[in-house]
Amino acid sequence: MKKSFLIGIIVLGAWLIMAQSCFTFRTADAKAIASFNRNGIALKAITAKQDGNPIHYVQTGNDTQPTLVFIHGTPGSWNAFETYLKDSLLRSKYRMISIDRPGFGYSNFGKAWNLADQSKLMGPVLKEFRNGQPIWLVGHSLGGPMILQLELDYPELASGLVIISGSIDPAAEKPEHWRKIMDKTPLNFFLPGAFRPSNTELIYLKTDLKIQAEQLQKIKKPVYFIHGKTDSWVPPVNVDFGLRQLVNAPKIDTLWLNGGHFIPWTEFKAIRTKLLELKP
Questions:
Q1: ∠252-130-32 over CA atoms, to 5°?
Q2: pLDDT digits (tens, 9 = 90+) for 229-242
Q3: Which domains does the chain have, with CATH numbers?
């Protein structure tokens, strides 16, 4: 019995250590820069400070070009859009920036914020990207409501929004009561790596979306929806919700693609084509 108990303690300890060192979904700057260099691409990796918090992002392209700012879902980091930053067609037209949302990557990894607080940290950093050319915010999954929040808080920032598989409809969110149990009990320590802040921000999201829904009529920029027809994680009703709520957007366009929630990677070429066609 004592031997079994000891083995159990060792296994438990090993998991707790491994859980926090694995599943971080992030790439060290030196490794990322080397990878881009092998493809003949210059990658800048920058960590800004906002209210004492690190905000990390990477950049390719010329500062005089129009800009695509990519914002990942949950969990994740800037490298969710690595394929886009490496693409020669996109680089010929855009400066591209991909940011680690607060709590992920190298932006104060492990701490969770709601949408409004994330916006307060990222917004001032993103404002520094303005160069007199159009700036498009591109958000996948939770990055969808994130770019809507940024537009509400900083309406002078972007020329338009591209929401890919965005979870923006509060009514489409499942209750998921188990998340609160995981968050408020010692079970939280068993969540590996980036799944811990992800679990917490998904709890926040259910309230965040209700607050955000009441303000969406304030958005007066073009909004492009890209969504998978068979997305079971973020169902297509999220697009229907956006079409109903964004009543003052001067233009709304919808691109339906075959596939589920992972279309940024499975349908890269179709999404690239849409990004190349963007007009303010």
A1: 95
A2: 999 999 999 999 99
A3: 2-276 (3.40.50.1820)
